[in-house]
Amino acid sequence: xxxxxxxxxxxxxxxxxxxxxxxxxxxxxxxxxxxxxxxxxxxxxxxxxxxxxxxxxxxxxxxxxxxxxxxxxxxxxxxxxxxxxxxxxxxxxxxxxxxxxxxxxxxxxxxxxxxxxxxxxxxxxxxxxxxxxxxxxxxxxxxxxxxxxxxxxxxxxxxxxxxxxxxxxxxxxxxxxxxxxxxxxxxxxxxxxxxxxxxxxxxxxxxxxxxxxxxxxxxxxxxxxxxxxxxxxxxxxxxxxxxxxxxxxxxxxxxxxxxxxxxxxxxxxxxx
Length: 272
Prior knowledge:
Layout: H1 3-13, H2 16-19, H3 22-32, E1 36-38, H4 55-68, H5 80-87, E2 94-99, H6 104-113, E3 117-122, H7 125-138, E4 143-146, H8 149-152, E5 157-163, H9 172-180, E6 183-195, E7 203-208, E8 217-222, H10 223-232, E9 235-242, E10 262-270
Parallel strand pairs: 2-3, 2-5, 3-4, 5-6, 6-8
Antiparallel strand pairs: 1-7, 6-10, 7-8, 9-10
Helix pairs in contact: 4-6
């Protein structure tokens, strides 16, 4: 491993990182092109990704969308509309589940393109409360906010979207087991970190450093282990591509032998 990466991992894993001036931390991370650092954890901490969504932010998104008729916020898979247009006609009715959806403009653009879409979204309680208020204020059609996993299981879905979310969920395996049986055709997982090495364990816990003061933990997944669950449930890989929404450096993971990790988009298709 290059010495600079070894020292950087040591520094940002230490208590010194917590008292380091923010501007200095930002400079060091940018200069070393480091986004994530290794940890010795085996699972994600509780309350791993605290959030504080604001309804005014969502209203601003709605207003900007009304002006431009285009998506406003960052998406880990910006080609989602193009992908769906290859699968569904503009008048076709289908159920779309956005697992971990955070931005209302995702619904707005899909509803514009596919007038008969049924759009289901689930997120943490804080987001659900805001979405409920938006639904009451704007009276959106065919938009359904799900409160928990049991509510997800009340429906079947033609297309399920996981936009850079599974790696932040400790019980992702349990969630996938439940959702796979409710997926009729497609599951898109975008912005996920996958490495290919059958000699290593199924996942590693890493710490994310570019969201300071938030320091969420997440999983890097072993590709073969991760995809095996889908194969057992009669899915095949329709495509597996490098995610183009961001450029991530994994060189500081050479010691863990997962420096070949790739920021990945993967589409699964049910064979039935």
